[in-house]
């Protein structure tokens, strides 16, 4: 029996769980994180004051499809529930992207960023202020959409002072509270708080989507359980491929010159610069989706127009945009000149390449070569939900887990959290989570 448990890995899992429990700080961090995640999930079911929760069924159904369905996925169903957390953390994510791009383009923000911890606090403050501006626009738009899709009798209170203003303030306060939860998790919990909230929102939709898929396969003549097993196996393969994409790096060797200081020798060692195959992370998919949402919004896609995110031209343009944005975001985040200067400053050089400008050109050349397969693979992951829905007959809700932003966020956040747990274990001289090798950090997004 013990041999069977050892082969299945159960013995090692139990031992790792015991090691985690023995570390008081890690145990408290995990408990604190789970508590705040529970608060987030509880809040996603609290309906906006003034609305009868028994009369929003029609909106809940329509909000799980099309454009709203994609947004509802990241809020964990809060958007379709007309919850006070309906807007989730997406306004904050949008503000973060804008501030990040402005930091690259505006010299004044670049100087603030180089100020260290004080500069980081200023950038965070600007991000929060921009989030409030975005919320001031998105909250009324959400209420207008809500009002157009549920019966008038559902509004128990009417008027600007009685309903609209309090509802807008509730939505704004809800998003700001979610941001606060994320910051508390980052400071006193485990992992990146905002990323964990997004991940929990995505995972919360998985059981419903899976049960709907099981019901479809068993109750309709659409392939039966055999096809369901094939779908699960393909999904596992996609997860493994996504992990490989997130973890893949191209190592550039760097040789450091020897230095004699007194009677001691310094340097002389060979190290490596790890260039990620997917240095842009999930950002190209987010940018491409944001751009593709524009024609949908103007055509009234959320209300049921004939523009489909599963159409041929939409998919083709979407894939091309992902490739273009991958090159764009990699170019603005990876600075070969700065990397070459750091190598030269520390007395290093790439074997066979002169320090300085030639080193920057070599790094840029290698980065360009590895970005092409990385961008193509990222585009394939982005459009996999379309292939799953159109050609495999996978349900629309379940197909969202076959690729796109949701899949990469799940993979990235899980790897990042496991890497932090492993760091705590290794710091206390316990074995890591893996029997061989070590977990690598995820690509940022």
Notes on the structure:
There is one protein chain. The chain has a 3-stranded antiparallel beta sheet. The chain has 2 domains: 22-204, Preprotein translocase SecY subunit, CATH 1.10.3370.10; 223-445, Preprotein translocase SecY subunit (Orthogonal Bundle). Mean pLDDT is 79; it is low at 300-306 and 441-445. Helix 7 (107-113) packs across helix 8, helix 10 (193-219) packs across helix 17 and helix 12 packs across helix 13 (312-333). It is built from 17 helices and 5 strands. The chain is mainly alpha-helical and 445 residues long. Strand 2 and strand 3 form a beta hairpin. The two termini are 44 Å apart.
Q: Keywords for this structure?
A:
Preprotein translocase SecY subunit, two-stranded antiparallel ribbon, disordered C terminus, 445 residues, mainly alpha, globular, three-stranded antiparallel β-sheet, single chain
């Amino acid at each position: 029996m013990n041999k069977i448990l050892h082969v299945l890995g159960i013995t090692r899992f139990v031992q790792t769980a015991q090691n985690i429990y023995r570390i008081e700080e890690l145990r408290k961090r995990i408990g604190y994180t789970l508590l705040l995640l529970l608060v987030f999930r509880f809040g996603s079911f609290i309906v906006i004051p003034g609305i009868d929760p028994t009369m929003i069924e029609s909106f809940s159904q329509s909000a799980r499809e099309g454009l709203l369905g994609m947004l509802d996925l990241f809020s964990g169903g809060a958007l379709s529930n007309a919850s006070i957390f309906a807007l989730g953390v997406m306004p904050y994510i949008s503000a973060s992207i804008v501030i990040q791009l402005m930091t690259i383009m505006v010299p004044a923000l670049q100087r603030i960023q180089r100020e260290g911890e004080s500069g980081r606090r200023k950038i965070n403050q600007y991000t929060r202020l921009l989030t409030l501006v975005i919320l001031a626009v998105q909250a009324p738009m959400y209420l207008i959409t809500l009002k157009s899709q549920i019966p008038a009798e559902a509004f128990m209170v009417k008027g600007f002072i009685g309903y609209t203003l309090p509802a807008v303030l509730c939505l704004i306060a809800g998003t700001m509270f979610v941001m606060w939860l994320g910051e508390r998790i980052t400071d006193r919990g485990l992992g990146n708080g905002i990323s964990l909230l997004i991940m929990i929102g995505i995972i919360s939709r998985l059981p419903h989507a899976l049960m709907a898929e099981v019901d479809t396969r068993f109750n309709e003549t659409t392939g039966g359980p055999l096809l369901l097993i094939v779908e699960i196996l393909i999904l596992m393969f996609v997860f493994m491929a996504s992990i490989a994409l997130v973890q893949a790096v191209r190592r550039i060797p760097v040789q450091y010159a020897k230095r004699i200081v007194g009677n001691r020798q310094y340097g002389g060692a060979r190290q490596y610069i790890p260039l990620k195959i997917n240095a842009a992370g999930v950002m190209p998919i987010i940018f491409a989706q944001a751009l593709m949402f524009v024609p949908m919004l103007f055509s009234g896609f959320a209300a049921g127009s004939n523009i489909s995110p599963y159409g041929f031209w939409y998919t083709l343009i979407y894939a091309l945009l992902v490739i273009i944005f991958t090159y764009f975001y990699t170019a603005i985040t990876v600075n070969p000149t700065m990397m070459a200067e750091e190598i030269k400053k520390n007395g290093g050089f790439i074997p066979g390449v002169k320090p300085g400008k030639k080193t920057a050109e070599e790094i840029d050349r290698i980065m360009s070569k590895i970005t092409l397969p990385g961008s193509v693979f990222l585009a394939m992951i982005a459009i996999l939900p379309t292939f799953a829905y159109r050609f495999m007959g996978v349900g629309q809700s379940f197909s969202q887990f076959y690729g796109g932003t949701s899949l990469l966020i799940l993979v990235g956040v899980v790897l990042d959290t496991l890497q932090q747990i492993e760091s705590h274990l290794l710091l206390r001289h316990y074995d890591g989570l893996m029997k061989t090798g070590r977990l690598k950090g995820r690509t940022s997004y």
